[in-house]
Amino acid sequence: MTSHTRRRFLKVTLAGALWGLLMALPRMAAAAWPAAAFRHKTVPGALKELLGNANLTTATDEVRLTVTDLAENGAVVPVTIESRLANVDSIIIFVDKNPSALVARFNLAPNVRPFIKTNIKMAETSHVIAVAKAGDKLYSTKKKVKVVLNGCGG
Amino acid sequence: MADTIKIRATLEGEITTVKAQIIHIMETGLFKNRTTGELIPAHYIQEVTCAHNGKVVLSAEWGIAVSKNPYIAFSFSGGKKGDAITLSWLDNQGGQDSIETTVN
């Protein structure tokens, strides 16, 4: 191998390695997003996939879910979730009859109050389930929402 | 960029409240194009991150059921007027944006 071809070999190898690394980056970022949990059709299935645990403690007083009883348009259903519990590290929202039950998870730093307000889509009349995770305990509350217009398509 | 995000961070007493709206189609991938009959590909935000002075306070994982032009509000303690708040999002097609504001 002449020094010329060696240099060329190095160049190609390094470029290849760099390319591989660049291609891997978005995949590494996407790996954090829990794709399998979002594919589940049921709340227990999605919870088990997401946390390895689906033991919900009903806690209507400790987790407060504010959502309308009747949603004219399932495409925009405002929800507010608040909790009195200490050390809530994440708030998870489910709609049990949506094509995928898991709607969103919000991970909170210790100085973040257990409070989230957002808008969600609902495919049909079903329950909205709010889960507050504190350590390895899951506290939940749910509310039935009647949906007039499907907000998910399909 | 940052054309897609409207954000406001306000301090009241000890609590800083962040309110943000992102302009995004949030396409589920379940709707059909009415003329061609083909499914419109899913296009939705999967990750949202909000930091206070460079430290992540909120990170969110979203699926297709967060509404179009997503709105989010949350609050935290330890903020002061003039502190930096950044918010960024990433969607399933590699689209992204971020914005920086200060606590008012």
The CATH superfamily label of chain B reads: Immunoglobulins
Helix/strand order of chain B: EEEEEEE
Reported for the largest beta sheet of chain A, the result is:
6 strands, mixed
The assembly state of the depicted protein chains is: heterodimer
Major β-sheet strand ordering of chain B: 4-3-6-7
Q: Low-confidence parts of chain B, pLDDT < 50 over ≥5 residues?
A: none
Domain count of chain B, please report it.
1
Mean pLDDT of chain B: 96
Please name the CATH topology of chain B. Immunoglobulin-like
CATH architecture identity of chain B: Sandwich
CATH class categorisation of chain B: Mainly Beta
Description:
The complex is a heterodimer of chains A (154) and B (104). Chain A is an alpha+beta fold and 154 residues long. Chain A folds into two domains: 1-32; 35-149, Immunoglobulin-like (Sandwich), CATH 2.60.40. In chain A, 28% of the residues lie in helices and 38% in strands. Chain A is built from three helices and nine strands. Chain A starts with a helix and ends in a 5-residue tail after the last strand. By secondary structure, chain B is mainly β. Chain B has a single domain (5-102), classed as Immunoglobulin-like (Sandwich). Chain B is 0% helix and 52% strand. The radius of gyration of chain B is 16 Å and the shape is elongated. Strand 6 of chain A pairs antiparallel with strand 4 of chain B.
What key attributes describe this structure?
heterodimer, A: 154 residues, alpha+beta, Immunoglobulin-like, 2 domains, 6-stranded mixed sheet, 3-stranded antiparallel sheet, 9 strands, 28% helix, B: 104 residues, mainly beta, 4-stranded antiparallel sheet
